[in-house]
Amino acid sequence: MTGPRVGYQEFAEMAPDARKALTALGAAVDATGLDKGLTEIVKLRASQINGCAFCIAFHLNMARKHGVDARKLDLVAAWREAGVYSQRELAALAWTEALTLAPGTGGTDDLYADLLAQFSREEALALTIAVGTINQWNRIAAALRFAPPAAG
Fold first, then answer.
1. Per-residue pLDDT for 118 more than 80?
2. Which residues of 120-143 are buried (b: 16+ CB within 10 A; e: fewer)?
3. Among 5, 35, 111, 151, which is least packed by CB within 10 angstroms?
4. Which of 138, 115, 126, 109 lies closest to 48 in space, CA to CA?
5. Contact of 102 with 73, CB cutoff 8 Å
């Protein structure tokens, strides 16, 4: 089978409460004031790891709208070696990978300490919610094969 199993719009119509709940989690993170460009980079990286074409395209579009430097978007898959990210972004990306690749462990204490060196506890909580939410979106969108949105 090629193409979407269920398209995004159909998902929204068939499961409006689920879409609303996931969207509300994203809005809750936005309401904390955590930098939107940072959260888009994090969502992009998790989506790359999870192989979610819809979410990769969506968060590239969103990151561009929020003025994220193109070099950062181009190099996010190799963020450790790229030399273009701030210490804060590096900590966020490391936390994202830990939670995405090994969700059962919840990240190591050392990694969480590194995160807290760059973020307040409230910001770390918001970032953790953002990572958890994008991972859920990735699993839904990839499983249902949502078609990537147009550039925009």
1. yes
2. eeebbebbbbbbbbbbebbebbbe
3. 151
4. 138
5. no
Residue 45's identity, in one-letter code, is R
**CB distance 132 to 98 below 8 Å:** no
Alpha carbon 100 to chain centroid distance?
10
Provide mean pLDDT across the span 122-133: 97
Place of tokens 């809005």: 27
Q: State both tokens at 36.
A: 């939107």
- Residue 2 pLDDT exceeds 90: no
* 145 Ramachandran zone, left/alpha/beta (phi>0; psi -120 to 50): left
DSSP conformation letters of 11-49:
HHHH-HHHHHHHHHHHHHHHHTT--HHHHHHHHHHHHHH
Cα 116 to Cα 142: distance, rounded to the nearest angstrom: 31
Instruction: Name the pTM for this structure.
Output: 0.94
The three-state secondary structure class of 85 is: coil
pLDDT at residue number 64 = 97
Q: Rounded distance, CA 151 to CA 134, Å?
A: 19
User: Torsion angle, CA of 8/11/16/22, rounded to 10 degrees?
Assistant: -60
Flag whether pLDDT at 60 surpasses 80. Answer: yes
